[in-house]
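Researcher: Quick one. three chains, 1119 residues in total.
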Amino acid sequence: MATAVRTDTGERENYLNAGHGPKSWLLTVDHKRIALLYLISITFFFFIGGFFALLIRLELLTPAGDLVQSDTYNKLFTMHGQVMVFFFLVPAVPAVLGNFLIPLMIGAKDLAFPRINLLSWYLFIIGGLLMIFTILSGGVDTGWTFYTPLSTEFLKTNVVSAAIGIFFAGFSSILTGLNFIVTIHRMRAPGMTWNRLPLFVWAHYATSIIQVLGTPVVAIALVLVVLERLFHLGIFNPLLGGDPLLFQHLFWFYSHPAVYIMILPGMGIISEIVCCFSRKRIFGYKAMALALLGIAVIGFLVWAHHMFVAGISVYAALVFSLLSYLVAVPSAIKVFNWTATIYKGSVTYQTPMLYAFGFVGLFTIGGLTGLFLASLGVDVHVHDTYFIIAHFHYIMVGGMVMAYLGGMHFWWPKISGRMYPEGWGKLAALIVFIGFNLTFFPQFILGYMGMPRRYHSYPPEFQILNVLSTAGATVLAVGYLLPMVYFMWSMRYGKPAPPNPWNAAGLEWQTPSPPPTFNFDEEPVVTWEAYNYDEMGEIPEKPENVEVPVAH
Amino acid sequence: MHTSQAAVDEHAHENPALLHHFATEEQQKNAASLGMWVFLAQEVMFFGGMFCAYLVYRYKYFADFGSASQQLDIRLGAINTVVLICSSLTVVLAVRAAQIGKRMALVFWLVATIFLGLVFLGIKADEYAEKFEKHHVPGASFSYHELLPSQEKLPEAERQYADPHHAEMYFSLYFAMTGMHALHMIIGVGLFGFLAYKAWRGKYTPDYYTPIENAGLYWHFVDIVWIYLFPLLYLIDRHR
Amino acid sequence: MFGHLPLWPENASTNAGNVDALYIFLLLVSGIMTVLIFAVLTAFAVRFRKQKGQRAVQIEGSHHLEITWSIIPFCVMLMFFVWGAVIFFQERTPPQDATEVYTVAKQWMWKFEHKGGQREINELHVPVGRDVKMIMTSQDVIHSFFVPAFRLKQDVVPGRYTTLWFRATKAGTYHLFCSQYCGTQHSGMVGWVTVMEPRDYEAWMSGGAANQPLAVTGEKLFTELGCVTCHRSDTQGRGPNLVGVFGKPVLLEDGRTVIADENYVRESILEPAAKIVKGFKPVMPTFQGQVSDEQLNALVEYVKSLGGPQSGRPVNANGVAAATPQP
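Model:
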């Protein structure tokens, strides 16, 4: 590497110390700084959403609705869903890890549109402020799904501010997706062909397509809800000739692909981690890339499987059921390929790999339960029960959040220039895995038994399983708090990280940790395939002791 | 992907319009164009949701929508259509002027586009005002007592009136769709105002006129949305 | 808490067993897949852990494997699909002679009306071993009628009827839940379905205050609201004669043919201009806002009783049609 640039204090210049003060952060166009701005924002919302979840689980310890009033409970589950989906899960991996890593992984200096990247963050903040306003001004109790005519005609809460807040978050998401698509098409370094892209990049490409094409539809659905509330229109009101199901179609047309927005980036992370910690090229690179695209495309065709009992025709239901099985196939391929990647590898079990194992196992369970739901006969029984809640939490929390944490640990050295404490990392991963299963597995049973979702109080025979679930939630909370603490601890006391502590493949590891503002001193020219672990050595025993060839 | 490092070093010093993170001007231009196309794709989905709602109810309330559609002034709608098509022409002429480096012509055509856009908005405002006067704006003051299409041929006693609820549905969607379209036009007019100023200051040359092109793309899109809105709202099934 | 092992809902309808069978099959296949994946992952993680002197073997992939583990899972999934579709088809095809019960859901209670006029709130009495069809609508927001013991649910939507049918197999009392979030007291909108032996059921139906059969209520409304002036059964009036209409195809002015089901009758009362019968003028006024959902149910039931595929059968005091047609 060329001689490093130095700051005034003699430190090597990197994106963290290049420029100080609030203006240098709030007006930055550096994708890495914007990624950190997002990191702080989404972590904040994660804990708000998590706090609501704890209150929900506390209430559900007893059959009677005795902790909070009914209206309050309805607001808790509504805002838990809205905050977690729109202000945590959708942006988390793309806006934090995607923003940070995509230019690095493809050998570019920044995203295609750095100023639009910053605009995306501000739009997210505006949306977030509206959400906070909604929470502080009494909350909203529509359910995260906003079904009409309940949300348009019958509720007195702050539906409008919540809807507009989500609209802004959605617009932020669209611009991020737009930025990624153009970046991946136009900003790849010489030699970085499509076939050499890391699967993390492919995953974000597929995600971005969904973000760009799907989000506008929920945006217009929410606009129509707002207009209906403000001007007493009748678009979704049967008394005025409207159709409540029209809203459901418009809403789910986005919200189903949205779950793929949430999971695809996580799958990208898992591919990176599994390859690094087995020291192997991914098994079936083309199949994996095609599977990502296949999930994105077919994911647009299955939305009405959320509406099997809503009043759609039998024939529509049959079509959507069949298509829902089709979308399961590429997901299954990915699980098999990750497993096959470990075969004849040289496996080590650092924290990121533990999260990856957890992901593959829990995503398998979540995905298999999706097959239950795609089956019309079973779905009629378990729709709108805790079975559904268990299913989507297995994928979103057992899958997505674990992938996010795995990715944060994997790339933490690159992002912060510090190593996190490995012992604590492993412990937290274990606590998260145990806490998660204890929280959500009983909910499958509760659901089949018939406990409906969004219930404040319930019949006594459901109590024992609810108690187990709440116990798990407290364990899970501890598991999530630990990384918060030790990541922050590591910023000051963690061992300095070398450029490539894991000896991993990928252009991002060819820069110092943390990288300089413009990523690469010289533009890389790529002549090797992705995951060229055949050319690379072993994982270092102690990552922080890896020799650093740059001048310090 | 682009070609070599050498090209980077040469060009970096030549054109101040080249942003730091792009290696060549061509890369920057291609990125900007692709960005605008992707943006337009999501706009299609955005308007598509409303079009979907409109088509569903149009099918369901055929006759009532026909009646409400007759309340629109087809001449004003047609004039607006011509105005917008002309404004797309002025946009193309602006791009051409930029291509051949004619600064004043560029400014002229940009201003002409703005002017036509304002004409469109003015006529639209007039139409909205008329709807307001006739109490055809959905909401508390909505009132509708009009015949279904082709009822005038029948004797007075047998004439059928449109269902006011369904007519209100039509107007809800009419205002939502044309309002959203008008909002996009206002943004476009503002954008062109900014570009006209920059053009007057000499920012655009035959080497660099990407913003003019991309703004032109945006404007054409807004025009095309109207090309769909006009027949769907004003023309279909007025007389049965 | 430990009344019975809280792991499985009761089985109280013909449908429940079918659903349970499919569910158990799904559980087995998923269980096997899960165990398999977990086992293989663990085995690989242990067997291929980093060892001194051993390097990873790079494997590009295998087209054969990709195709195999795409096609086989998809074929298994097709089994799930077909089995589930068959059950769903059965669930959505109510038998012809089902006993009908009208349901009006509102925030936050269930109102039931049997054909004999018996009304219930939050409690539904039905006979064991007989097909029952719920004809449901909502007065306000979307609710959902859910009986776990029957493995059935159906959203109840304002502005139209949705239906659900079942045949209970075991006497007893079973939970009824609203399973579509509907506002403040959503979790309070619960009730009981009481399945009774036929004799107990007859006793229950005739007990209590004398009820007016729903069709009779409908007939009275038909006169009071003036429907009878245009829809005459003796001569051709300004509106179609409604005798024998229910359940049969109707040819409309615009060329479409629709079946005169409950939704058609309801729509004809609330939005008469939506479907004009061929040969008639669109002169019927709307009754939107003038009739409650319960009154609409009565009117629909009256039109039904005028004839249609279920007609020609005498109706007893409870409004229940006899099982076999009389000559």
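Chain A touches chain C through 98 residues (CB under 8 Å).
Researcher: Thanks, that's what I needed.
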